[in-house]
TrEMBL record:
Range covered out of full length: 85 to 449 of 449
Topological category with respect to the lipid bilayer: Multi-pass membrane protein
Enzyme class: isomerase
Chief localization: Golgi
Swiss-Prot/TrEMBL catalytic activity: UDP-alpha-D-glucuronate = UDP-alpha-D-galacturonate
Name the UniProt record assigns to this protein: UDP-glucuronate 4-epimerase
Length: 365
């Protein structure tokens, strides 16, 4: 069938010993950037995404279009679709899975709890079940989240710190993913690596994230809410630029051990690995807004609310020495440089560059 042909073509590596990688969440923010970078260096990349409407799916369709131009086919299916997943693994001997599909967002969970359970727990288990039965068994690298540190106050966060106080259902499902990964590694010898991303931002980012809707609201002259913790401390995040995260994902794929097959065989099981991928330089939300104001050359209407939002943690800060030691991960983009690239993309994509230039002054370099 032509579907099969496209799937095979997409996932065939073009470099010697190249990987054949299934990227889940390939039409999303991090997934689309990773898929393109992997393809560019000659790996075979097949995408999977359900194109859900959690945020504006026209962004996902635009990414699918670009991926298509680079011969990356995106299968439109849900992680929970056993038949489709099984068929993909029957057709393609994937060496790796980069699993980035998930229900993201912290506050959406208050209204839609089961969407987190379905994608982040059931969907993950479904993928692991199929990976464990596949021949060869692929190595799996997947996105956990800095949110697993929850209300922890020991800073910066190291992988050995406690993660037993998730502040949102999203965080709890990411933490559950880590426990589930441990089990599949232990019983079935699946090679699994979890990456705790810290607030990723950049071009083609998620419209539900603060830097994105602040940009939109500032440009539209709407007021923005800045939350402070109950003790009036500023909320701060270890904002990490997308290109640094892509390098981290590729580093983790390149150093992933091979899966060792079912338990009972004599080989030692591959190790479960968990890494922080952050920027190691937390920035307050107030500072984020002032950087945006200067890039957009517009004064924001700020509304400070002295109350934490449910599900948000006050502060995140990554220690990345483990990822540095194991695969040379070193973030190189500071927030001002990364936001400049984001703002350039934003005004270009939404076609408002001329308005910004004319009415509010030039987008500064
Ligand atoms: P995203 O929402 O842009 O991408 C996720 C993609 O997965 C979307 O395109 C969505 O349609 C797809 N998807 C969701 N559920 C699915 C399902 N059940 N079956 C198939 N496809 C499904 O989010 P992102 O920011 O690119 O995040 C990628 C990963 O990184 C996620 O696992 C997220 O939890 C994690 N993460 C992101 C951040 C961040 O700041 N962006 C921080 C920590 C962790």
């Amino acid at each position: 069938a032509s579907w099969e042909k496209q799937v095979r073509h997409s996932s065939t590596p073009r470099r010697p010993n190249g990987f054949s990688i299934l990227v889940t969440g390939a039409s999303g923010f991090v997934g689309s950037h990773c898929a393109l970078a992997l393809k560019k260096r000659g790996d075979g990349v097949l995408g999977l995404d359900n194109f859900n409407t959690y945020y504006d799916p026209t962004l996902k369709r635009a990414r699918q279009g670009l991926l298509g131009k680079h011969q990356i086919f995106v299968v439109e299916a849900d992680l929970n679709d056993v038949d489709v997943l099984r068929k993909l693994f029957d057709v393609v001997p994937f060496t790796h899975v980069l699993h980035l599909a998930a229900q993201a967002g912290v506050r959406y969970a208050m209204e839609n709890p089961m969407s987190y359970v379905s994608s982040n727990i059931a969907g993950f288990v479904n993928l692991l079940e199929i990976a464990k039965a596949a021949d060869p068994q692929p190595a799996i690298v997947w996105a956990s989240s800095s949110s697993v540190y929850g209300l922890n106050t020991e800073n910066p966060f190291s992988e050995t710190h406690r993660t037993d106080q998730p502040a949102s259902l999203y965080a709890a499902t990411k933490k559950a993913g880590e426990e589930i990964a441990h089990t599949y590694n232990h019983i079935y010898g699946l090679s699994i690596t979890g990456l705790r991303f810290f607030t990723v931002y950049g071009p083609w980012g998620r419209p539900d994230m603060a830097y994105f809707f602040f940009t939109k609201d500032i440009l539209q002259g709407k007021s923005i809410n800045i939350y402070q913790t109950a003790d009036e401390k500023e909320v701060a995040r270890d904002f990490t630029y997308i290109d640094d995260i892509v390098k981290g994902c590729i580093g983790a794929l390149d150093t992933a051990e091979k899966s060792t097959g079912k338990a009972g065989k004599k080989r030692a099981p591959a190790q479960l690995r968990i890494y922080n991928l952050g920027n190691t330089a937390p920035v307050s939300v107030g500072k984020l807004v002032s950087i945006l104001e200067s890039l957009l050359n517009v004064k924001a209407k700020k509304h400070v609310i002295k109350m934490p939002r449910n599900g948000d943690v006050p502060y995140t800060h990554a220690n990345v020495s483990l990822a540095y030691n194991d695969f040379g991960y070193k973030p190189t983009t500071d927030l001002a440089s990364g936001l400049r690239k984001f703002v350039r993309w934003y005004v270009g994509y939404y076609g408002i560059e001329s308005r910004v230039n004319k009415e509010e002054g030039k987008v500064q370099d």
